[in-house]
Amino acid sequence: MPAYRDVLPADSSFHEACARHTARTTTRSLQHIYLCDACAIRLVREAFNDRPPLYHGETIEGYCGLCNTLGQVTLRQWFVCPVCWNVVVAYQKSFVAALAVPAFWHRDMAGHFPAFELSGTDEVRVTPFARGASTKREAARVLKVLDYLVSERVGDEKIGRFHIELKSGPGSIEQMKEFQLDVNDFNDIAGAINNTGVPAYIFHLKLDQEHRAPTRRTIAAGMWWTDPETLRANLKNIKKRRGEDKPAAYFRPSAFRPWSVFEKELASRRFEELARAGQVQFIG
Ligand SMILES: [Zn+2]
Ligand SMILES: [Zn+2]
Fold first, then answer.
1. Which residues contact 178 (CB under 8 A, 6 or more apart)?
2. What is the pLDDT of residues 149-171, one digit of tens each?
3. Fewer CB atoms near the end CB (10 Å): N or C, the chain?
4. For 197-227, how does the pLDDT look when each residue is reduced to its tens digit (9 = 90+)?
5. CB–CB of 68/61 below 8 Å?
6. Closest ligand by atom to 34 CA
C-alpha cells in the first residue's frame, strides 16, 4: 500500500501558490497526476520546493506520470501554475526519450559494431522554477558536449567519432510537413562540432502516448536521423513561433532517413567524410 501521505499543512502560506515556483506565486490552478510513491517524493524534493500534495486520492494499477512504470499509482493534487504544469507533464516523455537512444543502439548497433561505444546520457533534471536559474547549456561558442558521443576503440585508444543530439516529438518524419528546430538548438550542435572537430548526427525520436485511463504511458515509437549539413541544405525558412520570442528554423523532413539504414551509414564510415568537411556554419 502507498506509504507517502504527507500533505501541505492547512495553515501553510503556499495554499493557492504554484508548488514549483520557488518564490511565492499565486495560482489557483489545481493539478492532478497519478504517481508512484517514489516519484511523488522526488517531485516534492526536486521540483516542488518541499511542498507536499494537498491531497492523496485513490490508488490504482496504472502508469506513473513521472517514471512511466506500470504499478501502484496514487492520485495526487497540487497547486501548480499552467506554465509549470506543462513542464511537469513533459518529464515522463523526457525519461522515455533518455532511455531510447541507448536502447536502440544496444538492440540494433552494438552487436554489429563491437568496437564502437555509446556514452553520455540525455540526463533528465527535475527542477523548480527559479528566475535567473542557469540554463542547461553553455553558449554555443564554448559548447563541447551534446547528448551522446560514439567512440571507436582503435588499439588502446578510444577515438570520439561522432556526437548524437536527440530531439523528440509526437510526429513521424514521413507525415511531417516541416521539421522544426529552435535556431539556438541548431547553433548548439554546430558549436559543439566546431569546438571539438567531431561531427554530429541529429536523431528524431517519435514519442506516442498510450492511454490506460486514467493514466497513460509514453512509448518510443520510431527514430530517424540526419546530419547538420544535410539538414541545413533542407532549410525552408526561419521565423518566430506564435507567442514565443525565440526564432525557430523550419526544414524539409526529407533531410531525415529511417533508423533502419543507420547501420549502413555507420558501416560506410561516412562520419570520416563529415569530419573532413569541418566547420558547420551557424544559422539565423
Ligand atoms: Zn514513478
Ligand atoms: Zn509555476
1. 236, 250, 251, 252, 253
2. 999 999 999 999 999 999 999 99
3. N
4. 999 999 999 999 999 999 999 999 999 999 9
5. no
6. 1
Question: How far apart, in Å, are the Cα atoms of 207 and each of 129, 221, 224?
Answer: 25, 6, 12
The closest ligand to the CA of 19 turns out to be 2
Closest ligand by atom to 92 CA: 1
Specify whether the CB–CB gap between 199 and 271 falls below 8 A: yes
CA of 86 to the centre of ligand 2 (A): 10
Pick the closest to residue 170 from 136, 132, 211, 219 (CA basis): 219
Please give the single-letter amino acid code of residue 18. Answer: C
Burial of 106 (0-12, 13-18, 19+ CB in 10 A): exposed
Mean pLDDT of 29-56: 98
The x, y and z cell numbers of residue 15, run together, are: 495554499
pLDDT at 130: 79
In whole angstroms, what is the distance from residue 256 CA to residue 167 CA? Answer: 12
Asked whether the whole model's pTM tops 0.85, one would answer yes
CA of 88 to the centre of ligand 2 (A): 10
- Going by DSSP bridges, is the β-strand pair 200-212/215-226 parallel, antiparallel, or unpaired? antiparallel
Element containing residue 162 per DSSP (H, E): strand 157-169
H runs (alpha helix) in 145-182: none
What pLDDT score does 260 carry? Answer: 97
- Give the dihedral sign, CA 56/73/60/95: positive
Mean pLDDT of the chain: 94
**For the chain, which domains are there?**
1-80 (no CATH), 91-277 (3.40.1350)
Q: Which ligand number lies closest to the CA of residue 14?
A: 2
Distance 1 CA to ligand 1 centre (A): 15
Residue 91 CA to ligand 2 centre (angstroms): 15
Question: Can you tell me whether residue 86 is helix, strand or coil?
Answer: helix
Question: Which residue from 32, 43, 31 is spatially nearest to 6, judged by alpha carbons?
Answer: 43
